[in-house]
Amino acid sequence: MSEHPQLERVAANVYEIARTGDMRVPVRVYGSEPLIEEMRLEGDLTLTQGRNVATLPGIQKFAVVLPDGHQGYGFPIGGVAAVDTEEGVISPGGIGFDINCGVRLLRTPLTYDDVVGHEQTLVERLFETIPCGLGKGGYLDTDMDDLRGILAGGLEWMREHEHATTHDIDHCEENGSLPGDPRKVPPEALTRGLNQVGSLGSGNHFLEVQRVAEVYDREIAAAFGLEQDQVVVMIHSGSRGLGHQTCTEYIRRFERSFPAIAESLPDRQLIYAPLREQVADDYKGAMYAAANYAWANRQAMTQGVREVFERTFGVTDVELVYDVCHNVAKEERHQVNGREDEVLVHRKGATRAFPAGREEVPEAYRDVGQPVFIPGSMGASSYVLCGGDRSLELTFGSTAHGAGRVMSRTQAKREYDAGELQRTLREQGVYVRARSGATLTEEAPSAYKDVDEVIRVSDALDIGTKVARTRPVANIKG
Q1: Positions at the binding site for GMP
Q2: Where, in this chain's numbering, is GMP bound (predicted)?
């Protein structure tokens, strides 16, 4: 096992791996000493992967590792890389297998007192209404024509078919639609995506009813429609098997198309295609189509939540605060070498966190900054942030996406007992319904970093500013 790259502390919570060898830029690593030490554990490749990313053609300024950074496929999870749109490349490892995995937050008119005593009914109805786990169908019935419409149109297709409102579209990153090309999505991926629209999936995906436990900035919270003790719902899911199969097949295509590149890389998992090549354009069209699918998927689950809350509490105004993705690559304009330029920003386990004033931020939030949602581990707090003033300077407008793992799923399943974990959560007032005990144990809170520390660093760096903290009430998992 190679040694960890040498890190130099350059400011509070800011470290750097200097440019050496075939690196084209340095690596910026953001984190406190405890978070950095977790990246330097024996056998962990987070920092090595960050160094490898810095070798990519066309990469600008620096490769970024965020406070929740941990080892991933090729890129570290919690990684950001911006590449020149003329000379740069696109790498599936910098986006992830779960294309447009993301988080949305729904606000309700209820307070915590309104749901006390109804938690078991609520969690059971959510579990019955929204399919969880591998396969298991979807909230919507879709045929192949529907699927192609979703891949091309995202939330616009959902609105046209009365599964979304104009408010939903206006409060979603990219208005819930990128220029996807269904023709570029592999046939097997299409098959896997059929009848899974509105399904949670497995792993770390969840749907969680929460209460707003603490408000740090009342003005921004009010702009987001949030207040103390309010009941909200957080949904974390992505593009399901369709996205995974799309990523898998394009990695194979890249390897076949560019064998010399594959052989030259410090890690074959970094395989890329030059942006000028047709296969890169094909992948981008397929990746954007999968992103549209993920937005439609979270929207369909939102419709399921609305159904359950109306049936359980008689409320009809469950509204979308915002929906933000953390596995995608998009063209954006950023300051590079003293001038504004267009770059392709890869965010892999990284949340866009644009500050106030950016035109991409919905009009309703443009004066305060883009909402950012960072879930903690099961049983821990989650956070609402807004885009920080220094995010553009430090991270290409990005912050963390979660707590970040410190323990593999296999190790967690060995060390924790599902029944004991469920009892502990219930004692904390958290009602959990999962498809299997294995899902519970692999998502045990101790398998993750300290989300409070991740948020503290994000706030201190001013890349994501604390707005509110939420606590879990009821959670469903695959």
Answers
A1: 204-208, 326-327, 375-378, 382, 401-404, 477
A2: 204-208, 326-327, 375-378, 382, 401-404, 477
